[in-house]
Give the backbone structure.
Amino acid sequence: MKAKILIARAVFPEVLERLSQHFEVEANQNDEPWSAEEMARRLHNKQGLFSSANERISAELIAACPQLKVIANMAVGFNNIDLEAATRAGIMVTNTPDVLNETTADFAWALLMAAARRVGESERWLRAGKWQRWRYDTFLGADLHGATLGILGMGRIGQAIARRSRGFDMQVLYHNRTRLPVALEAAASQAQYVGKEELLRRADHLILVLPYSAATHHAIGAAELALMKPTATLVNIARGGIVDDAALIAALRQRRLAAAGLDVFENEPAFHPDFLQLDNAVLTPHIGSASVPTRHAMAACAADNLIVALSGQIPPNLLNPQILQ
Ligand code: GLV
């Protein structure tokens, strides 16, 4: 008998087809929003869940689904899942690391360049028909080349971002929970480990690549923003909640920070409406990994994890291997 799985959100048709060969599938190709109760009702008799980073998999939901064996999250981040509760319940949880590193690093640079060189703001101005003549000071921005790039959170994506800075002749500073081995620092464009405060003070451009957790909630708030240069650019491609958005809005409004490039927000997609008033913020709808090949690779990775795990083997990207003991 085929195991039963729930696919919480619309997926590429080939993923649905592949999973249907292995499992009895309940899908959501209309991408309907499900309440927590609806999710619990649909998941109740399923052994597997294919989720995105947008579904909250709480301890309550886990307790309501005693048959559940595997949660395959199609994202590298997994702060949407109560991992401890899943582990206590003996449920395997997997994510999709690595396949998105380079694409997400590319996008961090897209946001950095757009924010520092005022691409969104100047394009809106041009589209509004305001371009009448040349002026010496039209949309002056900050240079990237030769500047100091700060990276907060130096995992695989942070390192991929750092490698790209070579072409811009930048000095790279980083802060991380633990310092990288020297060989990895060298490969990451000779990145130099510094304390968080020094990073904030010295960076001309700061990119956030931290995982979100209770420990990193508001890692960048009013106090941290106050340490940054008023000419600096802040980029967040990590998770909403790492930045205190109200504090960032105040800093951008008062030009205590020059610009921000933001792909993630607190309470997204219902982000703080005041961001829309700020010309010095480039805003994108959580699309850091959204290239055609990478989203296909992430979906295939999540499907692999689900198929392997429900065949009784250890899935390649198991986040809670302790449940195997
Ligand atoms: C996207 O935000 C991810 O975690 O993969």
Observations:
- The CA atoms of residues 121 and 265 lie 20 Å apart.
- The longest helix spans residues 292-310.
